[in-house]
Design brief:
It is built from 6 helices and 19 strands. It is mainly β. It has 2 domains: 52 residues, SH3 type barrels (Roll), CATH 2.30.30; 220 residues, Fumarylacetoacetase-like, C-terminal domain (Fumarylacetoacetate hydrolase, domain 2, Alpha-Beta Complex). The two termini are 28 Å apart.
């Protein structure tokens, strides 16, 4: 099943997407409510091209993220981390982004030019947890997944380096996590380690990768994260980005006003966001 969330005069609506038609869920406004209730998509059909899509889910707590989860991405940044060089970890590197980073799949997003001169792109497969769990065994981990979507972990590289090697500030500027366009349930994706993904900027291919090249699989990430930490229904986990980020290029390339960033994952679709100077929030 493909799930979308869209704006209406009465507020956000959650629906099932079939082709170019959305069937709303009755009495359910978000994925968290869907996970806790048995609900059927039975409302009056709505054409997809008649609505503004929102992020399919806004988590109720921070977005969990994994750094350095593709070897070529780790390698491309060697010597470019501005005093934050580390050996390749033998366990996942976790950080988080605030819920206020979440933006829609087609929104214009802020350049944040007053705060950063180095806004960068990162396409990622995002995991949505469906079943609560703690100390989850790797063999059982995918059974806790409700579905998958796409995220762009927009990152202010200068701020990422400026706060004691803690990435939180540089990763948490408002509207720096576009997500969508749909949430695809786990049964339709099957193996999350069999998905191509990539990112284009102004039509130029910047990133191409494949989840089979993740250092830590989705199941391993969930198992490690859940050790002593309860994962809740509706939690979102970003699983890392492949090589091709702007900061690692020679010379480095960063986003500017008017850039169009498109992130795609096989079987899910694509985000398309325009970066705009002068914005504080997504529009």
């Amino acid at each position: 099943m493909k799930i979308v969330r869209y704006a209406s005069e009465s507020g956000p609506v959650l629906g099932r997407l079939d082709g170019q038609t959305i069937t709303p869920f009755q009495g359910v406004a978000d994925v968290q409510a869907l996970l806790s209730n048995v609900a059927q998509a039975s409302g009056a059909a709505v054409p997809l091209d008649s609505v503004r899509l929102l992020a399919p889910i806004v988590p109720q707590r921070n977005v969990f993220c994994v750094g350095w989860n593709y070897l070529k991405h780790y390698d491309e940044s060697k010597g470019k981390r501005e005093g934050q060089e580390v050996e390749l970890p033998d366990r996942p590197t976790f950080f988080s982004k605030l819920p206020t980073t979440v933006a829609g799949p087609h929104d214009s997003v802020p350049l944040h030019e007053a705060y950063t001169a180095k806004l960068d792109w990162e396409v990622e497969l995002a995991v949505v947890i469906g079943t609560e769990g703690r100390d989850i065994a790797e063999a059982d981990a995918l059974g806790h997944v409700f579905g998958y979507t796409i995220a762009n972990d927009l990152s202010a590289r200068d701020l990422q380096r400026a706060h004691g090697a803690q990435w939180f500030k540089g990763k948490s500027l408002d509207a720096t996590c576009p997500m969508g366009p749909v949430l695809v349930t786990a049964d339709e994706i099957g193996d999350p380690q069999n998905l191509a993904l990539g990112c284009d900027v102004n039509g130029a291919r910047m990133q191409v990768g494949h989840t089979r090249n993740q250092i830590f699989s989705v199941a391993r990430v969930i198992a490690e994260l859940s050790q002593g930490l309860t994962l809740l229904p509706g939690d979102v986990i970003l699983t890392g980005t492949p090589e091709g980020i702007g900061a690692a290029r020679q010379p480095p390339v960063f986003l500017v006003d008017g850039d169009v960033v498109e992130c795609w994952v096989d079987g899910i679709g694509a985000l398309r966001n325009v970066v705009r100077a002068g914005l504080c929030y997504a529009e």
